[in-house]
Amino acid sequence: MKRFSGAFLLASLMGILFSADPAAARDKSGLGKPAPNFTLSGFSREETVTLSALKGKVVLIDFWASWCHPCRQLMPRIAEIKTRFPDVEVVAISVDTDRDKALTFVRAVEPGLRPVHDSAQKVSEAYRVERMPSSFLIDKQGVLRFRHDGYGAKALVAVERQLQLLLNE
Question: Domain segments of the chain: what residues?
Answer without folding.
Answer: 22-168
